[in-house]
Design brief:
With about 300 residues, this protein is of the alpha+beta class. Among the domains are: about 165-225; about 230-295, PH-domain like, CATH 2.30.29. The chain is about 45% helix and about 20% strand. It contains 6 helices and 14 strands. A 4-stranded antiparallel sheet has the order 1-2-3-4, with no helix packed on it. A 4-stranded antiparallel sheet has the order 8-9-10-11. Strands 5-6-7 form a 3-stranded antiparallel sheet, covered by helices on one side. A hairpin with a 5-residue loop joins strand 10 (about 235-240) and strand 11. About 25% of the residues are buried.
Length: about 300
């Protein structure tokens, strides 16, 4: 197989620009509302041209930082190894295929390889990341055989989620939260300029902002719990923490093993309920082979 060069995609760049715009709307509105407080009278809130200048001043630096830091991300995959770099001039982390001991299938697409203390992450932000699937599949098949042999030899194996998704979940929740203030703050700012609506505007902004924040935090915590989940398989049965609580089941207690529509492994228990292994957990093919052999 020829080497595949991966570059940061145009869609990911557009997303970064829009995120910077949302942040600029929030920060720019705060800056504009504070201008009269720090300028001598009779300074007033900036007009339309002034607001646009403030927003542009908050937006352009964010785009420049994203361009320098993220848009230079690159990856390379060939028959011997996979590598990735966080910037155009930054060092690339390389991992040989035979050194990869854990493979995570990322959502919605992409892969992460770990082994020998190194980690190579090729996400959906790269153009043509699907081209690495044949090589990933080949290494995953070899790992499945090795892990199955280890299990049959009496080893207890643990399969787990990609822990770095905790940071991604928190960051995603924060960015999603900022889209609501981008709407609420200008509305509240306009209401503050009308004395009769001052308290009403502040109350509406505070209530809606608090509700939005609560929803985003709940989603972030749920995703974080799944990203930190794990499942252990041993001679006696299964022990798992799919979300917040730890569950155990003997092999005789498992009625069936199936894949759902989202690629997750679902262990249905005879007593009712189920244990779910997420689709982005490590070496899921080996886990499925072990479970189907035992159940």
């Amino acid at each position: 197989m020829d080497a595949v060069e991966l570059r940061y995609s145009a869609g990911a760049k557009l997303r970064d620009v829009l995120i910077c715009l949302a942040l600029a709307l929030v920060l720019g509105t705060v800056v504009a509302s504070l201008i009269p407080r720090f300028l001598p009278a009779p300074a007033e809130t900036p007009g339309l041209a002034g607001l646009l200048a403030v927003y542009a001043g908050c937006w352009i630096p964010g785009v420049v930082i994203a361009g320098l830091w993220r848009w230079g991300m690159r990856g390379r995959v060939d028959a011997d190894a996979a590598s990735a770099a966080m910037s155009a001039r930054g060092p690339a982390v390389s991992l040989a295929w035979d050194e990869a001991s854990e493979i995570f299938r990322l959502e919605p697409r992409g892969v992460e390889l770990r082994g020998g203390g190194e980690r190579v992450r090729l996400t959906a932000e790269f153009d043509g990341v699907e081209a690495v699937d044949p090589l990933v599949g080949r290494r995953a098949a070899a790992l499945d055989v090795d892990l199955l042999r280890s299990f049959e030899g009496g080893a207890t194996l643990r399969f787990h989620g990609p822990l770095e998704l905790r940071e991604a979940a928190a960051g995603g929740a924060l960015l999603a939260f900022l889209f609501m203030p981008a709407i609420l703050i200008p509305l509240g700012f306009a209401a503050f300029r009308l004395p009769a609506a001052r308290m009403q505007g502040a109350a509406v902004a505070a209530v809606l902002g608090a509700a939005w924040l609560s929803v985003m935090l709940a989603l972030a915590l749920a995703r974080r719990a799944r990203a930190c989940g794990w499942i252990e398989v041993g001679l006696d049965g299964v022990r798992a923490r799919p979300a917040w609580s730890i569950r155990s089941a003997r092999w005789d207690d498992i009625a069936s093993v199936e894949r759902d529509g989202r690629g997750r492994l679902r262990l249905r228990l005879k007593a009712g309920g189920s244990i779910v292994a997420q689709s982005d957990w490590s070496n899921l093919g080996a886990l499925e082979a072990i479970l189907r052999r035992k159940c």
